[in-house]
Amino acid sequence: MNLDSLPEPVADALIKSLLTDVEHLINQHGLSEILVGLAMYCNVQSKAKFDKPNRTEKDEELGFYFRDAAKALEVAASLTYRTMDRSPSGGS
After folding, report:
1. Dihedral of CA 75/76/82/85: which sign?
2. Angle at 73 between CA 71 and CA 77, to 5 degrees
3. What are the residues whose beta carbons fall under 8 Å from the beta carbon of 35, sequence distance 6 or more?
């Protein structure tokens, strides 16, 4: 579903609901753990796209996007963990 095709109040409500869910997950598990989980998901999706029999050019393109996203999320998780670990409160 494309958010652009929805009436603005509905799209805004969906985005607000999603952000509330993300905030709840971060509060429950910690930001670095959420980022690691997302990186793992992207790695699995990348591998699935590259290992797909008879993969198309689009599959390969998506595989590269998922691979690059996984790398970026891994770096963000590492930086987040280090930053939180050094905070005065000792992290979450």
Report:
1. negative
2. 120
3. 73, 74, 76, 77, 80
Residues 49, 52, 54, CA angle at the centre, nearest 5°? 120
Instruction: At 15, list the tokens.
Output: 């985005």
Sign of CA dihedral 34, 38, 19, 32: positive
pLDDT, tens digit (0-9, with 9 covering 90-100), for 37-61? 999 999 999 999 999 999 999 999 9
Whether 46 contacts 67, CB under 8 Å:
yes
The 10s digit of each residue's pLDDT in 55-65 is 999 999 999 99
**Lookup result for tokens 């691979």:** 67
Q: What are phi and psi of 37, to 5 degrees?
A: -60, -40
Alpha-carbon 35 to chain mean position: 6
Reading the block at residue 74, the tokens are: 């891994």
